[in-house]
Amino acid sequence: MARTIPVLEIFGPTIQGEGMVIGQKTMFVRTAGCDYRCRWCDSAFTWDGSAKDEIEQLTADDIWRRLEAMGGRRFRHVTISGGNPLLIAALGELIALLHEKGMRVAVETQGSRWQDWLLDIDDVTLSPKPPSSGMDTDWSALDQIMERLQADQSRVRRISLKVVVFDDADLAYAKEVHCRYPGVPFYLQTGNADVADSDVDALRAKLLSRLEWLVEQAADSEELADVHILPQLHTLLWGNKRGV
Ligand SMILES: C[S@@+](CC[C@H](N)C(=O)[O-])C[C@H]1O[C@@H](n2cnc3c(N)ncnc32)[C@H](O)[C@@H]1O
Ligand SMILES: Nc1nc2[nH]cc(C(=O)O)c2c(=O)[nH]1
Ligand code: SF4
Ligand SMILES: [Mg+2]
């Protein structure tokens, strides 16, 4: 029997709005469940119970059929996010199927958990959480994930680190992460403090001013001499709308 995967949303084609593959046309598969509870999580419905009736247990085949029904032949890239997809061993079957279908596969995770299928991902984004999230980083877990990914040369993959920054303490944390893993492409992302705001114009203005602040901070920093600084492009375009 094929194993099932708890899925909360499948959407696209859209663009990857964040990080290393920003702008890439992609489909999204969002899994349910997270081992973290970030204060400012923009996808809290994946773990806070508010969308529990929308969770579907789907096999890899089911998910592929949904992706095809929505995206036809108009996509070549699939992003798996959550929640934390790394809680779900059965995603290995989906990743194998997506590769068989000629897709490239990306994953978004906070870097707290390992699954062997992580070695099969083409675009790996690890997003450890800064102090403003209220979460503590398990550095030994993150070290091990980074070592295992970097030791495996069996495929070409892109790895990046992405830290969301709201304040000075987050910025200090971002520097710590970047210094700990030198040579790994490093992204600073503006934090969205208003995840329930439905006024898109007001939100855009706030996010752009946060981006300006973040650029200024990085400009003045020697430790952040070689970083990328980005907003969440999808939030600038569509605000806090789900499924985009
Ligand atoms: C919803 S998370 C799901 C994947 C995984 N749990 C993680 O956190 O990396 C996807 C991305 O959104 C970012 N994110 C979540 N809430 C945010 C917010 N309020 N502002 C900016 N980025 C946010 C996370 O840091 C992560 O990089
Ligand atoms: N367009 C778009 N880009 C994204 N990049 C990361 C997302 C996520 O929620 O993981 C996300 C999302 O929800 N939408
Ligand atoms: S780790 Fe990701 S999904 Fe989990 S609570 Fe934090 S931002 Fe949300
Ligand atoms: Mg999101």
From TrEMBL:
Belongs to the radical SAM superfamily. 7-carboxy-7-deazaguanine synthase family. The gene is queE. This is 7-carboxy-7-deazaguanine synthase. One of its GO terms (biological process) is tRNA queuosine(34) biosynthetic process. Pfam families: Radical_SAM (PF04055). Catalyzes the complex heterocyclic radical-mediated conversion of 6-carboxy-5,6,7,8-tetrahydropterin (CPH4) to 7-carboxy-7-deazaguanine (CDG), a step common to the biosynthetic pathways of all 7-deazapurine-containing compounds. Keywords: 4Fe-4S, Iron, Iron-sulfur, Lyase, Magnesium, Metal-binding, Queuosine biosynthesis, S-adenosyl-L-methionine. Residues 21-240 form the Radical SAM core domain. Its cofactor is [4Fe-4S] cluster; Mg(2+); S-adenosyl-L-methionine. [4Fe-4S] cluster binds at C34, C38, C41. Pathway: Purine metabolism; 7-cyano-7-deazaguanine biosynthesis.
